[in-house]
Write a structure and sequence with these properties.
Elements lengths: L2 H27 L4 H5 L3 H12 L5 H12 L6 H8 L3 H13 L3 E2 L4 E2 L1 H10 L1 H4 L7 E6 L7 H4 L9 E4 L5 E5 L7 H6 L2 H15 L2 H16 L1 H6 L1
Parallel strand pairs: 4-5
Antiparallel strand pairs: 1-2, 3-4, 3-5
Helix pairs in contact: 1-3, 4-5, 4-6, 4-11, 5-6, 7-12, 11-12
C-alpha cells in the first residue's frame, strides 16, 4: 500500500471517530443532557464535556449571563432556566463556558462584572454580530426598546429593530435575539429586556448607538443597587 493511501485511510478513521462526538456535541448545545446522549459510556461523556466546555462563548451563554445580571433573588440552575425559558442544561453549559472565559465565577456564583463589561463593549459585536433584516412583526429591540429608546433619538425614517415574534404588535426590521426564547422571557422580566436591549445595541448599532449603549451598560454594571442584587 502506498504511503499516501495509508495517510488517507488514517484520516478517514479519525473522521469516523470524530463524527459521532460531533453529532452529540451539537445535540448537547441544544440543551440535551450529556449523560443521556452518551448513555453509560464514560469515555464518550468525557469527550463531549471536553469538546463542549472548551468551546468559545456562544450567543446563548451571553443570554444566560444577562439573566444572572438581571436577577435580584437567589437562584439555582433550574430556577434561572425557567425564567429564561430554556432547558436547565443550557444554563449549566453556558456557565461552564463563561467560567472558562473568565466571565463567571463559580465560587461566588456571579458574573465577573469588570470582565463582562469589557467583553460586551469591545468584543460582543465580533463574537455575536447581528444585522438588521427584513420587515416582520415583532418585539421592539435594541435602540427601539428601553432604556435605549429614551437615550437615542430616532429619525423615524427607518423601521425600528424588532425581535421576530408572531404575536408582536410592532412591525420593524428583524434582528435575531441572543436566544430564541428571549421574546417570551422578557414579557414577565423587564429587567432582562433592558439588559438585552443594551447588548443588542452593542451587537448591531452604529458607533453612536454603541457609545450610548456602552455608557448605559457600564452605569448599570457599576451601580450599587445592581451590584447588591448579585
Amino acid at each position: 500500500m502506498h504511503a499516501w493511501e495509508e495517510l488517507r485511510q488514517d484520516d478517514q478513521r479519525q473522521a469516523d471517530h470524530r463524527r459521532p462526538v460531533d453529532e452529540l456535541v451539537a445535540r448537547a448545545e441544544e440543551g440535551y443532557p450529556v449523560e443521556e446522549l452518551a448513555g453509560r459510556d464514560a469515555a464518550l461523556v468525557w469527550s463531549i464535556d471536553t469538546r463542549y466546555t472548551r468551546a468559545v462563548v456562544k450567543d446563548a451563554d451571553i443570554y444566560v449571563l444577562a439573566g444572572l445580571l438581571a436577577r435580584s433573588e437567589p437562584w439555582s440552575y433550574r430556577s434561572l432556566a425557567e425564567r429564561l425559558w430554556v432547558p436547565h442544561p443550557v444554563v449549566q453549559r453556558a456557565l461552564a463556558r463563561a467560567k472558562g472565559a473568565d466571565l463567571y465565577s463559580s465560587d461566588r456564583r456571579e458574573v465577573h462584572r469588570p470582565h463582562f463589561e469589557e467583553f460586551a463593549i469591545h468584543a460582543l459585536r465580533f463574537v455575536a454580530p447581528a444585522q438588521l433584516g427584513s420587515l416582520v412583526p415583532g418585539v421592539p429591540a435594541a435602540w427601539a426598546a428601553e432604556p435605549m429608546a429614551s437615550a437615542v433619538r430616532s429619525s423615524g425614517d427607518e423601521p425600528p429593530p424588532v425581535w421576530p415574534f408572531a404575536q408582536g404588535r410592532v412591525r420593524g426590521q428583524a434582528i435575531e435575539p441572543l436566544h430564541p426564547a428571549a421574546p417570551e422571557a422578557v414579557e414577565a422580566w423587564p429587567e432582562l429586556g433592558e439588559l438585552l436591549a443594551l447588548l443588542d445595541s452593542l451587537r448591531a448599532g452604529d458607533a453612536r448607538v454603541r457609545g450610548v449603549a456602552g455608557d448605559l451598560l457600564s452605569e448599570h454594571l457599576r451601580s450599587p443597587a445592581s451590584v447588591a442584587g448579585q
